[in-house]
Amino acid sequence: MDLATLMGLGLAAGMIAMGLGSNLGLYINIPSVMIVLGGTLGSILTAYPMDKGMKLMNVMLSTMFYKAHNMSATIRELVTFSEKARREGLLSLEQELDGVNDKFMKKGLQLVVDGIDSELLQTMLETDMELAEEESEIERGMMDTGTALAPAFGMIGTLVGLIQMLSQLNDPSTLGPSMAVALITTFYGAVLAYVLFMPMSQKLAIREKIETRYRRMILEGVLSIQAGDNPRILEEKLKSFLTEKELAAYNATAQPAAEGETAGGA
């Protein structure tokens, strides 16, 4: 679970609620909700194929429920496979495939076991990466579309409210309440766009970069295993994909093992 998304949404909603004051009933208008929310969702469905548009809610929830990759564990797993392949040959990796949870890594190792040419292997895995990036861009595009459309439907609702207000000019007592209702739709559109859609789009963009880096690291590891590179060289190669914080965490967890080996050797 991504606590940052939940905390951010909670903080934004809480601060807006505090700013609205105690009379929250003034800001609740069902027709305005229908215009802004219904119009925005309907237009997103119009803009995207059915199978993509129907996943909108899942995409939004994915910004809250996300399991980050353990880059350090992945490097160690690839180094272990490299050591095994150097000792027992590439075909020995086949018995390890059932224990590989990452589908991308599993596919790469299976292709290595199958003896596929290295250039074709790289092309196939890069194609998989491109398809995954394309899917991520479509999901982020839905969020960007929502960011653009929600304020627009807010304005549509405001225009509807103004038309209704102008039709009742003969009754001055209705002008104030009618104007308030007209403006509520603009408020709804702004909240929907800038509290939900825009931040979620940014979160998806960041995750897309992380996913791409993760897959490139696996691709490099798989190609090195196939080429028979020294496991220590492979490890150093893969460590170059880690951020400063991830590298520090990797070295910290590797240190006790190194000390244990030294003690055992003594």
List the helices and strands and how they pair.
Elements: H1 3-20, H2 30-47, H3 50-53, H4 56-62, H5 71-88, H6 103-113, H7 118-166, H8 175-227, H9 231-239, H10 244-265
Helix pairs in contact: 1-8, 2-7, 2-8, 5-8, 5-9, 6-7, 6-8, 7-8, 8-9
**Uncertain runs:** 255-266
What structural class do you assign from the helix and strand content?
mainly alpha
- Percent in helix: over 70%
- The tally of strands reads 0
Gyration radius (Cα, Å) is: 27 Å
Spatial gap, N to C terminus? 44 Å
Q: How many individual helices?
A: 10
What proportion strand?
under 5%
Question: Overall 3D geometry?
Answer: elongated
- List the secondary-structure elements in sequence, H or E: HHHHHHHHHH
Mean of residue pLDDT values: 89
Which oligomerization state do the chains in this entry correspond to? single chain
Total discrete domains: 1
Main beta-sheet strand count, sense and barrel state? none
